[in-house]
Design a protein that fits this description.
The protein is an alpha+beta fold. It is 32% helix and 32% strand. It folds into 2 domains: 80 residues, RimP-like superfamily, N-terminal (GMP Synthetase, Chain A, domain 3, 2-Layer Sandwich); 77 residues, Ribosome maturation factor RimP, C-terminal domain (SH3 type barrels), CATH 2.30.30. Strands 7-6-5-4-8 form a 5-stranded antiparallel sheet. Strands 1-2-3 form a 3-stranded mixed sheet, with helices on one face. Helix 2 crosses helix 3.
């Protein structure tokens, strides 16, 4: 190699910037860290998700243990508590945005208790793998029996494996809105 070739080769230094992948952020570990403090305050963690990218975001969905509606003040209090806990533990090295929300009326269903608690209401469910050639179902929840969620589809009742459910959420119906309003009124009295 000639001297001129070396100079051209080393014109600019090569740098490698390493960013922590979202897969390396343990959302379940963060949930385990924050859940006891939130439970002591009267809140339950519904879901914790870390979304990476240009604007990394930690999404925490919470609800009140007494099942009353979440207010903006509730979300603010939960956000301040989570921020303090994460500042001490520091499980996320890079900057991120913390989003705290409530599940809402047409909430997603994650835990076994969700399917039992909302039995009688209409839901949309999607399986990870097809069951008899079908992955998507919409029907009335009948609760949990063993390791399966029973759903009345109208003409038939199906048993969907709880561990095989990829996504599920309540359907916003007049019946669900009425039940939510009745619960809110009775708790306000």
């Amino acid at each position: 190699m000639l001297a001129g070739e070396i100079e051209r080769w080393a014109v600019r230094p090569t740098f490698y910037f390493w960013r922590r992948s979202p897969a390396l952020i343990d959302a379940k570990g963060i949930e385990t860290l924050i859940a006891p403090s939130l439970a002591a305050m009267g809140y339950r963690v519904v879901r914790t998700v870390f979304i990476g990218g240009r604007r990394a975001t930690l999404q925490v969905m919470t609800e009140r243990v007494d099942e009353t509606a979440m207010s903006v003040d509730d979300c603010s209090l939960v956000s301040q508590t989570i921020s303090a806990l994460l500042d001490v533990a520091d499980p996320i090295a890079d900057s991120y945005v913390l989003e705290v929300s409530s599940p809402g009326i047409d909430r997603p269903l994650f835990q076994r208790e969700d399917y039992e608690r909302f039995a009688g209401f209409e839901a949309k469910l999607e399986l990870q793998q097809p069951l008899d050639g079908r992955r998507r179902f919409r029907g009335r929840l009948l609760g949990v029996d063993g390791d399966a969620v029973n759903v009345n589809l109208g003409a038939e009742t199906v048993r969907l494996p709880l561990a095989g459910i990829a996504r599920a959420k309540l359907v916003l119906t007049d019946e669900l809105i009425k039940a939510t309003r009745l619960k809110t009124r009775s708790q306000a009295i």
